[in-house]
Design goal:
Elements (H helix, E strand, L loop, with lengths): L1 E5 L2 E5 L1 H12 L30 E6 L4 H10 L3 E2 L7 E5 L2 E7 L16 E9 L2 H10 L8 E3 L2 E7 L5 E6 L11 E7 L2 H11 L3 E2 L3 E3 L4 E8 L2 E7 L11 E6 L4 H10 L3 E9 L2 E7 L5 E7 L15
Length: about 300
């Protein structure tokens, strides 16, 4: 554990949390143009008015040294490597980023089939050309995806080297923004509690329910720009994987989100604090222990230059 001093108080967090926070600070978390509204804490009933980007990032922790996992998302799937900082590797999917760091040595997680656990169970991405994508799998010694067309949609379900599920959707000749979409699939032990969290606390736009013929479930999508969180019910209580994966929101400011979380009794993974100089964050948990990480970069005041010494 690492102690971080915030306003004279020591806040303890894991080394993993601290390294991820530091990486977010160093990798230019500040959006080029802020879309955050000017609502005061008393005015905003959800976190959404404080969003500074029309997208969300996702992160996950890998086993071992992560070499095969990072190669899978970079060289095999073809997402741009935007560099690793502070132990966090990052790959660009449209305006979103996939972020990876090492899983703790003693951490125990449930993988298996998609519905063998609750929490983040599936990432869905879109691709223009099936043959090109399949060749990259073959060139890197990875079994080729078994694409099928179901209800007019061409897709394949595969697992990455850690056993985490990814859905590859082929959309030939689609608008360019299609290939920057990212969908985060969450299996929920209590569907209504999970829907309420993303609707009434996070404040995402809730879209009409969708029957997914591939997964055999009804998904409830929540959208922020190019990123969608789709929630569905597990087939009975399933184990959760706390801190294995999560969602990052770039916000401005973060303080009213923390106040709202306190008022609503939202479970806390890491309390509000300046986790690194200029980076103010809070890490909260949804009903299935999925980390929802809210991060704000604040301008750092440079110390005033000393006055010139008068000549004698």
């Amino acid at each position: 554990m690492i102690g971080v001093i915030v306003a004279g108080t020591v806040i303890y967090m894991s080394r993993t949390t601290a390294s991820v926070a530091f990486a977010f600070l160093l990798t230019g978390l500040v959006p080029a143009v802020s879309d955050a509204q000017s609502a005061s804490p008393a005015q905003a009933a959800t976190a959404a008015p404080y969003f500074a980007e029309k997208s969300m990032n996702v992160f996950r922790r890998f086993n071992g040294d992560g070499v095969k996992t990072l190669e899978f998302y970079g060289k095999v799937l073809g997402f741009g490597d935007v560099g690793a900082v502070g132990g966090v590797s990052r790959y660009q999917v449209g305006p979103s980023q996939l972020k990876f760091t090492r899983l703790g040595a003693n951490a125990k997680v449930t993988r298996g089939a998609i519905n063998d656990a609750a929490g983040v169970r599936l990432w869905t991405m879109w691709f223009a050309d099936e043959a090109t994508l399949t060749k990259r799998f073959q060139d890197h010694g990875v079994p080729a995806p078994a694409f099928k067309t179901i209800d007019g949609v061409r897709s394949a379900l595969v697992t990455d080297p850690d056993g985490e599920w990814v859905q590859l959707v082929i959309a030939a000749n689609a608008p360019p923004e299609t290939y920057g979409r990212l969908e985060i699939g969450i299996a929920a032990n209590d569907l209504e509690k999970s829907r309420a969290f993303y609707r009434t606390f996070v404040g995402l736009e809730e879209l009409p329910a969708v029957k997914d013929p591939v997964l055999g479930v009804t998904k409830y999508p929540f959208r922020n720009g190019s990123t969608t969180i789709s929630v569905w019910a597990t087939s009975g209580p399933k184990p959760t994987n706390r801190s294995l994966a999560g969602i990052q929101y770039v916000v401005k400011p973060v303080d009213p989100i923390w106040a709202l979380a306190q008022a609503r009794g939202i479970p806390v993974e890491t309390p509000l604090g300046e986790t690194m100089p200029g980076l103010v964050t809070t890490w909260l948990l949804d009903p299935d222990q999925v980390t929802n990480y809210f991060a704000e970069i604040r301008p750092r005041q440079r110390p005033a230059a000393p006055a010139p010494t008068a000549a004698r």
